[in-house]
Specification:
- By secondary structure, the protein is of the alpha+beta class.
- The protein has one domain: Nucleoside Triphosphate Pyrophosphohydrolase (Alpha-Beta Complex).
- 26% of the residues lie in helices and 39% in strands.
- It is built from 3 helices and 8 strands.
- Strands 1, 2, 3, 4, 5, 6, 7 and 8 form an 8-stranded mixed beta sheet that branches.
- It is globular and about 45 Å long.
- The protein starts with a strand and ends with a helix.
Length: 138
């Protein structure tokens, strides 16, 4: 059965030197963006902002009205592997304080270059590249 999640590439600081939030997953140790499953009745954007609040305690973030990037991969289940889609949005916050949930054991703000090195998977790096290109054009 296909799974659907939504997440957010959140940044802070000046637009010419943004810093991006990365979280280190407690279960496998992967560096990633805040994301999670869509709950019934939620829009994709509502899911992304809820997950940002739940995973990093950031309440104030402004979503970009245009940016949306999807990634695809498979996840292990009791039946084998199921396809998963994650829709990522771009958001800016002026509150750089984070408090992690139990889902992550580390999190911080990174420059674009450092974030590209830290992200565990190419599909996340592709998402960050697309977000940065969008920000440069805006």
């Amino acid at each position: 059965m296909p799974q659907k999640s939504c997440g957010v590439v959140v940044w802070t600081g000046p637009p010419d030197q943004p810093r991006f939030l990365l979280l280190r997953q407690a279960l496998h140790g992967h560096w990633e963006f805040p994301k999670g499953h869509v709950e019934p009745g939620e829009s994709e954007q509502e899911t992304a902002l809820r997950e940002l609040h739940e995973e990093a305690s950031i309440c104030e973030a402004e979503l970009d009205a245009v940016f949306r990037q999807e990634i695809y991969y498979t996840v292990a289940t009791g039946r084998g592997r199921d396809p998963k889609t994650v829709a990522f949005f771009l958001a800016r916050t002026t509150d750089g304080r984070i408090a992690l949930s139990e889902e992550h054991f580390e999190g911080d703000w990174f420059s674009y270059e450092d974030a590209m090195k830290m992200l565990s998977f190419e599909n996340y790096r592709k998402t960050l590249r697309a977000a940065m290109e969008h920000m440069r054009k805006a």
